[in-house]
Amino acid sequence: MPSQRPFITLEEHFLSHTAQEWSGDADPIGLKEFPSHITNKLLDMDSQRLQDMDAGHVRLQVISHTPTSGQAPLSVCRAANDELHAAVQSKISRFAGFAMLPMDDPTAAVAELTRCVRELGFVGTLVDNHANGIYYDDERFWPVFEKCQELDVPIYIHPTMPDPVMSTGQMGNYPKGVAQGLDMYAWGWHSATGVHVLRLFAAGLFDRYPRLKLVIGHMGEMLPFMLDRVTQIAERQWPKRERGLKKVWEENVYVTTSGMFSVAPMACLLRVSRVDHVLLSVDYPFSGNELGAAFVEELAGSGLCSEKEVDLIAFGNAEKLLGVKV
C-alpha cells in the first residue's frame, strides 16, 4: 500500500538563523516575498517539520539551505552548515544534510564541502544556479565539481533568483506578479537551470569529470522535452566531446520531481531517462509532502512504472545515490 512505502525526499529546504540575520535589507534570499507561514516552516527543524513529514509519509528528508543567489559568504555558509548538522544529529533517523557552499569563492567552497562531508557526515551539496550572475561553465568553479567527484557525492544545482543582469524583464500587459512568475518560479529560473546544464556539457565538464553525479529538480528543468532536439544540434554544431549529451544524461544526471506532481511530465522524463536516475522530491515547504505522497500513489496506478520501479523512485534510488537507508 502507498501509505506503507517509505519516502526519501532531497530538495527540502531550511533557513538558518545566521542567514536570516545576514540577509537584512538587501534580502538576497527573497525573504520579503515569503508568506510568514513559509518562513516559519523554513526556520523550524523540530516538531512542525516532523509533523509535516509524517503527514506525507516522508521517512527521511535531505535538507539544504534555501537559495541565496550564490552570495552567502563562507562565514554564513559555515554557520548554516553547523546549524543543520546539529539538527541532523538530533534527528539522525529522519534528517540528512546537503552542504551550503560559498560558490563565489571556489577555494573556500572546496574546503567547506570537504569539511561537511568528512567531518559533518553530509551526503552532498546543493548550490544555487549561479554565483552573482556567473554560471559554473567558468572553469574557476570546476574545483568544486572535482571535489564532488573525489568525495563521491552529488552536487544538486537548484534554481535561484536571477541576477539583475540575467533577468529577462518579463514586464508586459499584466500585473507585476505575473512578470515575477515568468522570470522565476513559473518559467524563467527553470529554463535557466536547464540551460546551465547544457553550458556545463558544452564546456566539457563531464569529459573532465566523467564520474560526476549532477542532480537537477522539477522533472528535469524542461530538458527531457527538448533533449532529442538539443542532442541532434550538439552533434552537428557544438565542439566534439568524448562523451555525448545522451551519454552524460544517462550516466551523470539525476532528476527529481520536486514540486511537479503530474504524470504527463513524468512520462516524458521516463522516456528519456533511466528509472534508477529518477527520484522523488517535494520542495518543502514551498510544496506539501501530502502532494508528493498523492503523486506516488497516482504514479503507481498509472501503468508507467512497475511497483519495483515506484519503490526505486520513492526511496531506493536515493538510498543508492546518497548512501542512506530507510
Summarize it:
This protein has helices at 17-23, 36-43, 47-55, 74-90, 106-118, 142-151, 176-183, 188-202, 205-208, 218-221, 223-237, 245-251, 263-272, 289-300, 307-322; strands at 7-14, 58-65, 95-97, 125-128, 155-158, 214-216, 253-256, 278-279. The chain is α/β, with parallel strands linked by helices.
**Percentage of residues assigned to helices:** 40-55%
DSSP strand content: 5-15%
Q: Helix/strand/pairing class, anyone? A: alpha/beta
Shape: globular
| Uncertain residue segments | none
Ends apart, CA distance between termini? 17 Å
Q: Please provide the count of β strands.
A: 8
Compute the average pLDDT. Answer: 93
Radius of gyration: 19 Å
Largest sheet, in brief, is:
5 strands, parallel
Q: What is the multimeric organization of the chains shown?
A: single chain
Q: How large is the count of helical segments?
A: 15
For the largest beta sheet, what order do the strands appear in spatially? 4-5-6-7-8
